[in-house]
UniProtKB/TrEMBL annotation:
One of its GO terms (biological process) is mitochondrial electron transport, ubiquinol to cytochrome c. The keyword Mitochondrion applies. It is found in: Mitochondrion inner membrane. The keyword Flavoprotein does not apply. This is Cytochrome b-c1 complex subunit 7. GO terms for cellular component: mitochondrial inner membrane; respiratory chain complex III. Its main location: mitochondrion. InterPro entries: QCR7, QCR7_sf. It holds the Pfam family UCR_14kD. Keywords: Electron transport, Membrane, Mitochondrion, Mitochondrion inner membrane, Respiratory chain, Transport. Component of the ubiquinol-cytochrome c oxidoreductase (cytochrome b-c1 complex, complex III, CIII), a multisubunit enzyme composed of 3 respiratory subunits cytochrome b, cytochrome c1 and Rieske protein, 2 core protein subunits, and additional low-molecular weight protein subunits. The complex exists as an obligatory dimer and forms supercomplexes (SCs) in the inner mitochondrial membrane with cytochrome c oxidase (complex IV, CIV).
Length: 125
């Protein structure tokens, strides 16, 4: 699972420092989590965020190795999907591996944008 090494370490660091609470999948029903199709492609929940201006800025702020692992997972998933196949079950993403590595950066960008908008609107002095 070399494609997850830096992402998992980064996710653990975010949990340990209290930036995020547990894995991204903790909100999902434990019975439903294994039914999520993206797991069969080795993707993480945060890999599925729709790209927009905010997400692009959050991606820019990611550590390089975490960003490259994300790109690898997405490329592999596209290749598997186009070939109408999935990973072997032993390589599917588990609930423990599904760390929220991008969400803290998205929240940071949103908060900065709100603060900037408030400043420009004269709400902050």
């Amino acid at each position: 699972m070399a494609h997850l090494k830096a992402t998992l370490a980064f996710g653990r660091k975010l949990v340990e420092t209290g930036v995020v609470k547990g894995s991204a999948s903790q909100g999902l029903n434990k019975a439903l989590f294994p039914l999520s199709k993206y797991l069969k492609y080795g993707l993480l929940t945060d890999d599925l965020m729709k790209e927009n201006e905010i997400v692009r800025e959050a991606l820019r702020r990611l550590p390089g190795d975490v960003f490259h692992e994300r790109q690898f997972r997405l490329t592999r998933a596209i290749n598997l999907s186009s070939g109408k196949s999935v990973l072997p079950e032993s390589e599917w993403t588990t609930a423990e591996q599904d760390v929220s590595y991008l969400k803290p950066f998205v929240e940071q960008v949103v908060n900065e944008q709100k603060e900037r908008d408030d400043w420009n609107a004269g709400k902050l002095h």
